[in-house]
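During the reporting period the student researcher (J.K.) took over the structure-prediction task from the postdoctoral fellow and processed the backlog of single-chain submissions. One of the processed entries is reproduced below for the supervisory committee.
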Amino acid sequence: MRVNANQPTGPASAANAPGIGSGEAATPTGDWRALKGDVEGIADVAVERGRGFVAAARAQATDYADRRKGDAAQSVNDIAQGLRDSSKSFEEQPNIKAFFDSAAEGLEQLGTSIENRSFAEFYDEAEAFARRAPVAVAVATFVTGFVVSRFIKSSSIAPHRDARDAFRS
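J.K. obtained the following structure tokens:
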């Protein structure tokens, strides 16, 4: 057997031979890398679109809240007026009347604040308060949940008597 100096021999020659090693083995690896690059590109596009969606949703929510803040301010002012009207029944009890008047004044200030501020400002202030007093926020959330659950429970329709109870009668 004659060996040519330009022709490699041994295991390296098998890897370079057509049909064995690099020719067909490189194609699946190259395809895998291309697929991986495509998936990464799709993921990047999905992340960008997700960020755009979140930004658009936030902008719409802020716009809606800003449009509705006049209605909210009017509702708060109406509650304040209701408190003022109810305080008139406590003319003979000045401490209770002062309490109602103070609450009404606070609500009127809140109504004015709602009219003069944007939703973003309210959100920033609420977030800052939650960071300063997380325990107060947790307690307020618990109390609100408890009150709402009691309200829902008390306003629900009483269950009908069981068929067994009707049968016993």
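The committee noted the following: DSSP finds six helices and no strands in the chain.
J.K. will present the remaining backlog at the next meeting.
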